[in-house]
Amino acid sequence: MCGIVGLFLKDKSLEPELGALLTDMLVTMTDRGPDSAGIAIYGDSTAGQAKLTVQSDRPESDFATLAADLGAALGATVTLQRKDTHAVLTLPTDKTTEARAILAELRPGLRVMSDGTHIEIYKETGLPRDVAARFNLAAMSGSHGIGHTRMATESAVTTQGAHPFSTGADQCLVHNGSLSNHNNWRRRLKREGVRIDSQNDTEVGAAYLTWKMQNGANLGEALEATLSDLDGFFTFVVGTRDGFGVVRDPIACKPAVMAETDQYVAFGSEYRALVNLPGIETARIWEPEPATVYFWSH
Amino acid sequence: MQSIDLATTSLREMNATLQATNDQTNATHWEILNPRGAHAIAVGLDAPIEVTVRGVTGYYCAGMNKQATVHVTGSAGPGVAENMMSGTVIIDGDASQYAGATGRGGLLVIKGNASSRCGISMKGIDIVVQGNIGHMSAFMGQAGNLVVCGDAGEALGDSLYEARLFVRGSVKSLGADCIEKDMRPEHLDILRDLLARAGVDADPQEFRRYGSARKLYNFDIDNVAAY
After folding, report:
1. Which of the residues A5, A25, A271, A285 would you substitute to probe the B interface, choosing the one with the greatest number of B C-beta atoms within 10 Å?
2. Residues B127, A291, A22, A155, CA torsion sign
């Protein structure tokens, strides 16, 4: 199973409520995925600054002097905002790649969840309600976000196996289903120089999209290509800095419901996830077609 | 009319109440409020009662229905009227995948579209869809009738046994061993009756009939290449 929720706002006045709306949707999908939960949220950005969201199993010791240590090594100002096991490091955009390399030396146990100018990813094992509370997801604001509740099939129940996966700046992917040719693609993508950290099939899907986009495809074209290159069951929901996309495999066993109003586009694995959205009673509601790419951007 | 509000009554209590009715009851009309996409609403009914669900339902609404009439005023999630035995299920909106799957009897009417696998493994149920249906519909259908007033998706009637398929619009592709067949007078009669019972104003002459070529399901050494 697994549950997916997504919300792409068209109406800026809803942005302060994004976290609260997504949290409600996420918790509703608990019985589709009670072992882990995660959310990618596209929030504020500062010109010239990038955000690196990192996670640690020992946040007290790892985060204590991290901003100062990383700042000294980079020769730049780094700030850190801790949220439970995660922290958002803010640093100059042009230092991101260097920062990732330095972090691997400074704090080998640290995991980078995401990097980009807008994206932050929070994910942990546990019930969605508890995960949401740990990070106070309901208080977050943003322009769009994607959440996932996981019932593990392809890899262990760990933070690293939870969704969303991010393999490129400001990109993320969540997945309901299972890919059957991910090992071949993992080997191929690694040869192509795409970063893949886990044994999880979904991360390969994310890396595939990153690779396609690195080679000139837009998100829509990259999603279209999954239909011929990825084998298995999938409903994917993806986010980019200003975009939100959905694609289902041609068999389309994995459920999906979408709703659109003048204020938002919403995705839920089930209609239940959408029932508390404003104006849902009059929203256009439909089931996304198999093998069809849906894409919105700001 | 008896009313059950799922905002204040648990799903299990609602189903237990409906399942406890029998053909001696005076409480023949029920409405269910605030379904909000909940799963398994009005399942396992076995009495000649009428249940109106006001809103959208989740998985398996009206599953295993016998005798009852269940009317959903919104759309229905996956597996609506799955394994229905008798009675009537009416969906005003759309139905998600595998509507009417494995149904043995009764009538399922979908006023909107039905998505993939509509009537998969149907075993005697009659299904009337006023809109379109998705891919792999009536897969391994054994008996009953599937009427589609709109278009059918890919691989209609794949590995079909003896279910009858009637489609007014286009068929994207036929599945293995499914072929178009002549519409004979007895088929027009069946179709006319189904359309009337479903309350659909459509001319049976506009439909085409599809059925099994009967080359797959009985093993025959002469057909070995087709297996």
Report:
1. A271
2. positive
With pLDDT > 70 as the criterion, what percentage of chain A qualifies?
100
Of residues A12 and A160, more confidently modeled: A12
- Specify the residue for token string 């980019």: A240
Residue B22 lies in a domain: yes
Task: Reply yes or no on whether A172 is catalytic.
Answer: no
Domain count within chain B = 2
Region A231-249 average pLDDT: 95
- Nearest-CA neighbor of A144 among A168, A124, A164? A164
Domain that holds residue B28: 1-96
Of B75, B96, B117, the residue at which a domain comes to its end is: B96
Catalytic annotation, pick one of A2, A88, A174, A196: A2
List of chain B residues whose C-beta atoms are within 8 Å of the C-beta of residue A285:
56, 75
Q: How far is A19 from chain B (nearest CA, A)?
A: 21
- What digits encode the pLDDT tens for the residues A59-114? 999 999 999 999 999 999 999 999 999 999 999 999 999 999 999 999 999 999 99
CA atoms within 13 Å, Cβ hemisphere of B134: 24
Question: Same structural domain for residues B112 and B178?
Answer: yes
Structure tokens at A269: 């694995």
Q: Pick the residue from chain B with its C-alpha nearest to A288.
A: B115
Distance, in angstroms, between B18 CA and closest chain A CA? 23
Interface ipTM: 0.91
Per residue in B37-82, pLDDT (tens digit) is 999 999 999 999 999 999 999 999 999 999 999 999 999 999 999 9
Same domain (yes/no): B135, B53: no
Does B14 lie at the interface with A, CB-CB under 8 angstroms? Answer: no
pTM of the model: 0.94
- Is B60 touching A (CB cutoff 8 A)? no
Place of tokens 């085409």: B208
What is the DSSP code (8-state) at residue A287? P
Among B34, B63, B96, identify where a domain stops: B96
> Does the pLDDT value for residue B26 go beyond 90?
no
Do A102 and A95 touch, CB atoms closer than 8 A? no
* Nearest neighbour of B56 by CB, restricted to A271, A289, A290: A271
